[in-house]
Amino acid sequence: MILLDNVTKYYPGDTEPVLDNVTLHIQPKEFVFLVGESGAGKSTLIKMLTREEKPTSGKIMVGGIDYDYLRKRHIPHLRRRIGVVFQDLKLLPNRTVFENVAFALEIVGVSNAEIRRTVPKVLDLVGLADKGDKFPDDLSGGQRQRVAIARSMARQPKILIADEPTGNLDPKISAGIMRLLEEINNFGTTILVTTHDVNIVNQMRRRVVTIQDGKIIGDQKSNGHYYLDAERANIAKRPLATSDYRSTVEEIRAATNSPRSNAHAAAQRQAEAKATAQKPAKPTTPRKRIIQ
Ligand SMILES: Nc1ncnc2c1ncn2[C@@H]1O[C@H](COP(=O)(O)OP(=O)(O)OP(=O)(O)O)[C@@H](O)[C@H]1O
Ligand SMILES: [Mg+2]
């Protein structure tokens, strides 16, 4: 569903990469924390997924869309699949809560009738059914965060990405935001959350990916903890399971099935060759591979 393959990013004029050969696969319906120190590259990684920034090299696919073939006209389609809660929220101060959520639908051409139906449902989901007429400045920090989540959910994306959704919130409010994200995840939405919140990560016990100086130094696939050092962040690291590489190939196939060109076919052959190379010689010993 989300696939970064050897992604490297230099910002213009930089001599050091901000992302350095990042490879990350996230399956549909997973709930993943991305942790790392300030400046480690978390928001930049997210900007790769939302196409706010382009990688200098490497491959990105999200929900079957291969970014190598992404044209400007495809971006609205991409934005329907990915809901983003930005680190700085980006709420419109002169619009009401209702209008802030409605705006996310207006810009992708949803009819007024559908907007009137959808917005109250989404506000209800985030516990703000009675705040539609308020302006962002009239709300608490936790409520503003909920508006941002409501706006990102309005288009019913398959993937929700939240960049520091609990930054500056007190522990009780943070726990409420996390419960909301958990609920959204239970509906089947894939969730990727960046955070500095040790308590939240250690309470939730989900997959935890750790990034340091632009490199992924740990990937605890389940029951993860907040560790920023490579040794402990890697405790649950294990080789790619067979099912992971299969879905990777399937995603690439789905994406390259659209209007065929030589470039599409070549990308597919290359991906398949890579997947075959990753495949263990003896597929009859899956247990061993997972335990390693
Ligand atoms: N648009 C940009 N142009 C140049 N450099 C940038 C840009 N955005 C980020 N950087 C640099 O890239 C590095 C990673 O930034 P990024 O925002 O991805 O970090 P982060 O892990 O999200 O940090 P934080 O936890 O503080 O949000 C930093 O050194 C930052 O200064
Ligand atoms: Mg950031």
Keywords:
292 residues; alpha/beta; Rossmann fold; 6-stranded mixed beta sheet; globular; binds magnesium ion
Any overview of this molecule?
The protein is of the alpha/beta class and 292 residues long. The chain has a domain at 27-40 and 71-237: P-loop containing nucleotide triphosphate hydrolases (Rossmann fold), CATH 3.40.50. The protein is 40% helix and 19% strand. The protein contains 11 helices and 10 strands. The chain has helices spanning 42-50, 75-81, 97-106, 112-125, 141-153, 171-186, 198-204, 230-233, 242-256, 262-278, 286-291, and strands spanning 2-9, 19-26, 31-35, 57-62, 65-66, 82-85, 159-163, 190-195, 207-212, 215-220. The strands form 2 sheets. A 6-stranded mixed β-sheet has the order 6-7-8-3-9-10, sandwiched between helices. A 4-stranded antiparallel β-sheet has the order 2-1-4-5, sandwiched between helices. Helix 4 packs across helix 5 and helix 9 (242-256) runs antiparallel to helix 10 (262-278). The longest helix is centred in the last third of the chain and has 17 residues, at 262-278. The chain is globular, with a radius of gyration of 20 Å. The two termini are 25 Å apart. Mean pLDDT is 85; it is low at 237-242, 256-265 and 281-292. Bound molecules: adenosine-5'-triphosphate (ATP) and magnesium ion. Adenosine-5'-triphosphate is lined by residues 11, 18, 36, 38-44, 87.
